[in-house]
Amino acid sequence: xxxxxxxxxxxxxxxxxxxxxxxxxxxxxxxxxxxxxxxxxxxxxxxxxxxxxxxxxxxxxxxxxxxxxxxxxxxxxxxxxxxxxxxxxxxxxxxxxxxxxxxxxxxxxxxxxxxxxxxxxxxxxxxxxxxxxxxxxxxxxxxxxxxxxxxxxxxxxxxxxxxxxxxxxxxxxxxxxxxxxxxxxxxxxxxxxxxxxxxxxxxxxxxxxxxxxxxxxxxxxxxxxxxxxxxxxxxxxxxxxxxxxxxxxxxxxxxxxxxxxxxxxxxxxxxxxxxxxxxxxxxxxxxxxxxxxxxxxxxxxxxxxxxxxxxxxxxxxxxxxxxxxxxxxxxxxxxxxxxxxxxxxxxxx
Length: 349
Known about the structure:
By secondary structure, the chain is of the alpha/beta class. The chain is built from nine helices and 15 strands.
């Protein structure tokens, strides 16, 4: 059987992807579930994070969001039995690549897949759903009547975040990075998200949000990265479509929550003072935290089950590309690793 792995020869070098021939999976241990993979979503591999938590390997398994059929279960497995349809996210320290026909997974990383949800949608939604839940439910406690700004709402993550916020009764504002993104967001159902097109650089996001909220500011801001410097100081490859950190602080309302994906966020004393005056909070979105403590395991599995239920009920409608055959997995993963994919890439077996 072939499995896909990432290889990085030296720090800073681009990751290359290789197929490795592997033997059949080892014998099933007590709590293991042997899964025949039907679909695997591709996500960016954070090599720096792996290095920081001492999980850096010569070959990094690729593809962690999987859906498939249970072939065999260990002697102490209680949640599943053969022929069950399952979905889940492999842990950071997994030795298994999800881009493989048959893998072993500990039962605590899987939940049942609803019958009416297809394999590709299950694998392609589970991570973005987890991120949206972590941000809006656990970090910001979104509720009816709150205003939520989702930056880059047409991204796979942004789409699910908008749908979750609207389902919870929040008023949603979103930014679009192109005319195509704007049209996609305006076609989303249920309608109601106010779309701000920032593709031409002529619209002030802070001003638009304050106008939309009657000058009160936004209750919850969910970014997809921010600019830390002025345009002339920003490194060239950095997208100028990202908002500046000062814009986000300006448009944040009193008691507001800023959920950021910017792991290197720098706040100067004036920034901190502005946040202090507003009684606002800054939280960092890292969806890997759920598996860093066994205490959270039950809550984590409840989130995955709820994501599948919302997918089954069409509350979540993911932003997916056409399913990709296994032989194109290497090329697709290279595109994902360079952050050039605008839709979620899913391998179908």
